[in-house]
Amino acid sequence: MNNNIIIFCGILPAILLVFYIYLRDRYQREPLGQILKAVSFGVISAGIAIVLESTEQSVGLLIPEPATWIGALWNAFVGAAMPEELAKLIMLWLLLRRNKYFDERFDGIVYACCIGMGFAGTENVLYLFGNIENWQSVAVSRAIFAVPGHFMFAVAMGYFYSKIHFRDMSWSYRSLVFAAPVILHGTYDGLLFMANVTPEVAGLILMGFYLFCFWMFRVSRRSIQAQSKASDPNNLIFRNL
Fold first, then answer.
1. Residues 239, 232: Cα–Cα separation, whole Å
2. What is the pLDDT of residues 40-60, one digit of tens each?
3. For 67-86, what is each residue's pLDDT tens digit?
4. Rounded distance, CA 141 to CA 40, Å?
5. What is the CA radius of gyration of the chain?
6. Can you give the pLDDT at residue 236?
7. Which residue, among 173, 166, 149, 154, has the nearest Cα to 111 in the 3D structure?
8. pLDDT tens by residue, 163-200
9. DSSP string for residues in the chain
10. HEC profile of 58-84
11. Where are the domains of the chain?
12. How confident is the model at residue 229 (pLDDT cuts 50, 70, 90)?
C-alpha cells in the first residue's frame, strides 16, 4: 500500500476548502505566503491539541468509555472541542496579532479557515493511518463530514475574530470567538458520541446530526457572505453587519 496515496486523500479535502475560501476573498486577496503560513500554523495547532488532550487523559478528566449521554457530551466538549478550538485560537492570535495583511473583515475568516484546514488535514491523515484496514471508507466519510465540520467551526471563529478586531461588537460578546466554535464542535461530536452510546436510538440521533450539519452550513454561508460584503469598499452599509 502506498502511504503517499493515503496522505494525499487525507489532505485533499482540506486543500480544496482552502482554495475555496481563498477564491471567496474577492477584494484584496491574502498573499500565498500568508495562506501557507496559516495552514502550517494549523498543523502546529493539531500538535498542541494532542498535547492538551493527552494531558486531560493523564489527569483523569475524560471518561474512558462513556455509557451515558452526559459522559458522551462531556468527552465531546471537554475532551475534543475545547482543547482543539483553543489550540486553533492560540495559533490564530499568534498569526494575526501584528499582521499587516489583516486589513479587512473577511480576512479573519480566511485565516481561521486556513488554520482550521491545516488542523483538519493533519487530523485526517492520522485517522486514516489509524484505520488502515478500511481507510478508503473512513476517507470518504471524513471528507463529507469531519473536514467540512472543522471548516465551519473555523468560519465561526474567524467571523467573531474580525468582529473584535474591527470593533464591531461589545466586550460582552467577545467570548464568542472561542465559545461559538466550541459549541458547534462540541455539539457535532456530542451527537456522534451519543449515537454510539445508545445504538437503539442511533438513527434518530444521526438524523439530528445531519440536520445540525445542514444548519451549520447555512449559518457559515451567511457569515461568509456578510463578511465578504463588509469588506467591499463600495458597500459601506455592510460595515456593521
1. 9
2. 999 999 999 999 999 999 999
3. 999 999 999 999 999 999 99
4. 24
5. 18
6. 52
7. 154
8. 999 887 777 778 999 999 999 999 999 999 999 999 99
9. --HHHHHHHHHHHHHHHHHHHHHH--SSPPPHHHHHHHHHHHHHHHHHHHHHHHHHHHTT-S-SS--SHHHHHHIIIIIIIHHHHHHHHHHHHHHHTT-TT--STHHHHHHHHHHHHHHHHHHHHHHHHHTGGGHHHHHHHIIIIIHHHHHHHHHHHHHHHHHHHTT-S-GGGTTHHHHHHHHHHHHHHHHHHHHHH-GGGHHHHHHHHHHHHHHHHHHHHHHHHHHHHHT-TT-GGGGG-
10. HCCCCCCCCCCHHHHHHHHHHHHHHHH
11. 3-240
12. confident
Distance (Å, rounded) from C-alpha 214 to C-alpha 219?
A: 9
